[in-house]
Amino acid sequence: MSLVPGLPPTGRAAVRAGVVGNYVDRVNIFLPVVALAPALTTLAGPHVGVTAGAVVIVATLLGRPIGSMVFGRISDRVGRTRTTKVAIAGTAVCTPAIAAVPTHDSIGGGRDRRGRPPALRRRDLPRG
Q1: H helices within the chain, ranges in order?
Q2: Which helix (H) or strand (E) holds 2?
């Protein structure tokens, strides 16, 4: 059974590659939402759950066309293999950098003993 009857073998291979590529693309949309949204609640605080998920989706959907415009022009000039290596190296550098971002609580974003957020705490300022 063929997706498109009467298609030559090269055409069938192209359709198969398109289906697999679409599947991989859907996984690349799904994984950041599943992995990064919960991480953002840890990094940015407990009250950013839905907003964090929306920010991840927007960044993913905006980053793809912008990245294709930038890396498409580069790949036309220097070649696709070299461009892919540069993109993978950039991802390899950014991944540990994301892991090194301090959490919400470690930078003083947590609540005090009375449950007040930092913005509502009274600071004793020196008088002068």
Answers
A1: 9-44, 49-78, 80-99
A2: none
Closest by CA to 3, choosing from 24, 11, 23, 27, is 11
In whole numbers, what is the pLDDT of the chain averaged over residues?
77
43-89 confidence digits (pLDDT tens): 777 677 677 777 777 887 888 889 889 988 998 999 988 988 988 89
**C-alpha span between 120 and 105 (Å, rounded):** 16
Residue with tokens 């294709």: 68
Token pair of 127, please? Answer: 């008088």
pTM of the prediction?
0.49
- Which residues, other chains included, contact 84 with Cβ-Cβ below 8 Å and sequence gap of 6+? 75
Q: At what angle do helices 80-99 and 49-78 cross, to 10 degrees?
A: 150
